[in-house]
Description:
This protein is mostly helical. Helices cover 78% and strands 0% of the residues.
Amino acid sequence: MVGAFHGHAHNRRSQLDWHPMYIEGTGQTEGERCEHIFSSSNELARSTRHASRFHRHQTIEEHFAFWDEDKYAALSHFLRNHYQEALTLIHTLTIELSAVKQALNLTDADFIRFRADEKSYLESLKEPPLQDRLQIRYVQVLNELAERRLEWVRAREAANQALTDVATGDLHQINTAITQARIQVDAAYAKLQNTEALTSHIETQLAIEERWTVGGDNYKKYKEEASLQKYHVALNELERLVVMRLFELSKLSLSGTGKSTLWYLKF
């Protein structure tokens, strides 16, 4: 399971299965407890880096022995505080939940159904339908086809220009220019042929009788879909980087300070 803050590192579909908010009777997860222990022991690396194997093991054992004693001594205080916190949350949130249920005419069964509906919806969105993916790919191939045609035209123009720049009578230079021009034109034409074959293959799969024009209605529709997909990928990556940065600030005891605010403005 993942904690509430760790949930940002997981997609919403994963949270619906493992987030403590959706599991009855869960509090701090086992993974978080382990992370607290590992975090406290990270400081040992600095002091034991150049120690012998014996002294390294001795330091690690002493660290965790003191850890156990400290936590055992603070156990009753820990349980008391969390128990009081749980009672307060139950009292406060029960009142708020009752008001929401009354205002929206909801029952407990509705919340369970909402979660099930959300899971079902997200599972259906793991990947776009095959037809939509092909059409998005078709738009990308059309763009590539236009680029390949432009490259071929430019290669032919460059070849003609190269031949006109050669001095008359220099057979070796003429021969070299012709060879280089032929290689460039042949390479550009081979790329154009490959892209043409891929375009025709996708058109056959989509049963497209007349090729879409760049800038047409169908082209614009699925170009927007492709751009939206890239936007969502970039947005997810941005969220991941922000959360990673928050973890770093938390380790440096800088979270919630002016430095963290300045970092957000820069970001």
